[in-house]
């Protein structure tokens, strides 16, 4: 018995010793797994937020001219480091998402008057007019004619913020409301805004020129609006009369080339395409009575079921948008509505701004403005490292400032142009006229290389 008990006791001691030797290793293993999980999460956060990316001044492409030197000296923000909010501002996706959802941090409410302009085809264009809140530093009467992004209007937060800033700098502002974009304004004809139709913008500009015969114009376009204003100015030389300069921000220049990139999952571009298509469907369906009613001859062959099931802008453009102007194919629609075929005709000072991390504009499209700036003396192309699509938020660590880098750049560039026009001697005005004539001679040669 004694030996049996000793054996059992020995076995128990053995098990106890085993327990004491294994137990300390288990928590250590779990701690290691936790550390690995935390490290993985931190790595993903750093990669997604692009925290290791440096900040830098915009990459500028321009020709070495007296005008370009004056502009860069008078608008120093173009040569200074753009610093987005530290924790999230280096992510193009977050910059774009915050612009899309919040618009701006603290959106003012500028007071404006809504104007209604009847068009020849029965449509009614509308725009909002905002008078300046101070004297312009040039002492001149200057009006900013502004074209917002896709499906946007004067009530959008980013437009209101920019208008308020411009008013305080002495600029009158006229903001086009894209046809069909305002939820409380009914269409008066079976047509709404398209990617490159300039009719409504031209009507607004004509009204401003007629109502204020002494005013000079600063032309501003955001995203799709950038395509429209550049196409408008390049369509006819008379459209550039009394125009001091043009600024285009975050446009894609060629819809035909962009459509291929919008079907790719790179940078989640296919997902953004789906979201924009869903928004376009809502706008179109809100006007279904006018667009697809009995009197709509252009929409007789439009299949509403295809609209409901559309998952991309290209499907909507092919089934609906191109038919407003009678284009026979999607390719024809994109070819004729893109500013890439007209932008080389612009001879007034032109500032083209894009962001390198814009998830909507593929980097391959940026060869268009870069090539243009290399060929034409009136063009400056500014490419920022960060900013997303119409984001360009500035700030220290977490909270962005009310005014964005984009707001400051546009107004700063406009101020510099106004100063240039006021200070330049008459001989330079004559020289610039001759230069414009030479540019027009070379336009036909330039067109092929830009396309």
UniProtKB/TrEMBL annotation:
Coiled coil: none annotated. Residues 143-395 form the AB hydrolase-1 domain. Residues 424-451 are annotated as: Disordered. InterPro entries: AB_hydrolase_1, AB_hydrolase_4_sf, AB_hydrolase_fold, ABHD4. It comes from the Eukaryota. Residues 438-451 have a biased composition (Basic and acidic residues). The active site is at 223 (charge relay system), 358 (charge relay system), 389 (charge relay system). Pfam families: Abhydrolase_1. SUPFAM superfamilies: alpha/beta-Hydrolases. Belongs to the AB hydrolase superfamily. AB hydrolase 4 family. This is Abhydrolase domain-containing protein 2-A. It comes from Sinocyclocheilus anshuiensis.
């Amino acid at each position: 018995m004694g030996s049996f008990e000793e054996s059992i006791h020995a076995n128990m001691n053995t098990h106890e010793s085993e327990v004491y030797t294994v137990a300390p290793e288990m928590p250590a293993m779990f701690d290691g797994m936790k550390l690995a999980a935390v490290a993985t999460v931190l790595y993903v956060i750093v990669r997604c937020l692009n925290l290791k990316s440096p900040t830098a001044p915009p990459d500028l492409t321009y020709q070495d001219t007296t005008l370009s030197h004056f502009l860069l000296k008078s608008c120093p923000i173009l040569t200074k480091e753009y610093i987005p909010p530290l924790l999230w501002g280096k992510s193009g996706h977050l910059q774009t998402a915050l612009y899309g959802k919040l618009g701006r941090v603290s959106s003012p409410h500028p007071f404006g008057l809504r104007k209604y302009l009847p068009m020849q085809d029965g449509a009614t264009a509308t725009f909002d007019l905002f008078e300046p809140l101070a004297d312009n530093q040039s002492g001149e009467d200057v009006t900013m004619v502004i074209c917002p992004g896709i499906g946007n209007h004067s009530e959008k937060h980013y437009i209101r913020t920019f208008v308020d800033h411009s008013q305080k700098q002495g600029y009158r502002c006229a903001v086009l409301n894209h046809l069909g974009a305002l939820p409380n304004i009914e269409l008066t004809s079976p047509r709404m805004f398209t990617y490159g139709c300039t009719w409504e913008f031209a009507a607004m500009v004509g009204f401003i020129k007629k109502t204020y015969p002494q005013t000079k114009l600063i032309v501003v376009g955001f995203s799709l609006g950038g395509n429209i204003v550049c196409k408008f100015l390049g369509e006819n030389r008379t459209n550039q009369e009394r125009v001091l300069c043009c600024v285009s921000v975050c446009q894609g220049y060629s819809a035909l080339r962009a459509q291929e990139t919008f079907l790719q999952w790179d940078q989640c571009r296919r997902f953004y395409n789906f979201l924009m298509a869903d928004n376009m469907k809502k706008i179109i369906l809100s006007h279904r009575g006018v667009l697809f009613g009995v009197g709509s001859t252009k929409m007789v062959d439009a299949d509403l079921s295809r609209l409901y099931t559309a998952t991309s802008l290209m499907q909507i453009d092919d089934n609906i948008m191109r038919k407003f102007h009678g284009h026979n194919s999607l390719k024809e629609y994109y070819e004729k509505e893109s500013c890439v075929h007209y932008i080389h005709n612009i001879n007034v000072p032109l500032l083209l701004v894009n962001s390198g991390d814009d998830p909507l504009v593929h980097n391959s499209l940026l060869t268009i403005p870069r090539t243009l700036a290399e060929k034409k003396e009136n063009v400056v192309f500014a490419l920022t490292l960060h900013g997303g699509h119409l984001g360009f938020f500035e700030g220290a660590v977490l909270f962005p400032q009310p005014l964005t880098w984009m707001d400051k750049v546009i107004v700063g560039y406009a101020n510099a142009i106004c100063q240039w026009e006021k200070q330049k001697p008459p001989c330079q005005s004559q020289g610039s006229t001759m230069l414009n004539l030479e540019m027009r001679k070379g336009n036909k040669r330039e067109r092929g290389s830009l396309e």
